[in-house]
């Protein structure tokens, strides 16, 4: 079953093609990494899937429906620019967000899963960067989502938190969820994802397994990534000059 699909999607801002004909499809139970240099269009893709913005052209579907509205309650999201109410306590915020979902799990269970039990009565403002990321995961998990959209979810996390994070994310997949996540950490992508989608200049330049991307480990992942994305940015820059 296809969980999400973007077909020939363009998103244009004045002077910028954030997406220039993006084609991505993710099936139920997959963990897919979205890779790409700064400005490639990763966050724009998440915003479209959440219904926060609309495409200039092309088709975006989540569980076969237009993004936003009813289908939003089937998605748990961690976005880079997520603003949080600083004065609320951690448990209060998780409970509050849980109320927006039809199938909220127990708040204390989510706090335990994200190692936040000891921080439950602390204010959001007092959390460290990594704890804040774990809180964002708690908020993404509280509605028992079928789809997790995670934009650089482990960016501020230490090694142990990252490991716990992916254990929790995998547990959600074992329960039937699907994950699309963006990262700049190629090693993390290769270790965690079933499939990597490399985006550059608003288009997909590779869509394959981590193993196939490096020709079964014969090629260096970073070199492969740079070759794929440099070629594409050069072509885009040349296009700009015309
Ligand atoms: P990063 O790795 O830096 O987070 P990204 O792949 O998430 O990058 P996007 O945030 O999707 O990239 O941005 C894609 C392009 O669209 C960039 O050139 C960005 O400046 C532009 N862009 C995104 N949102 C807007 C907006 N609201 N107005 C104008 N331009 C925008």
Automatic annotation (TrEMBL):
Gene3D superfamilies named among the record's database cross-references: P-loop containing nucleotide triphosphate hydrolases
Chief localisation class: membrane
Residue ranges constituting the ABC transporter domain according to the UniProt record: 4-226
Subcellular location: Cell membrane
InterPro entries from the UniProt entry: AAA+_ATPase, ABC_transporter-like_ATP-bd, ABC_transporter-like_CS, ABC_transporter_ATP-binding, P-loop_NTPase
Entry keyword annotation includes Zinc-finger: no
Pfam families xrefs: ABC_tran
One GO BP annotation of this record: response to antibiotic
Keyword terms of this UniProt record: Antibiotic resistance, ATP-binding, Nucleotide-binding, Transport
GO MF annotation terms: ATP binding; ATP hydrolysis activity
Lipid bilayer topology: Peripheral membrane protein
Record-level GO cellular component terms: plasma membrane
Protein's name in the database: Putative ABC transporter ATP-binding protein YbhF
Species of origin: Occultella aeris
Biological classification of the source: Bacteria, Bacillati, Actinomycetota, Actinomycetes, Micrococcales
Gene name tied to this protein: ybhF_2
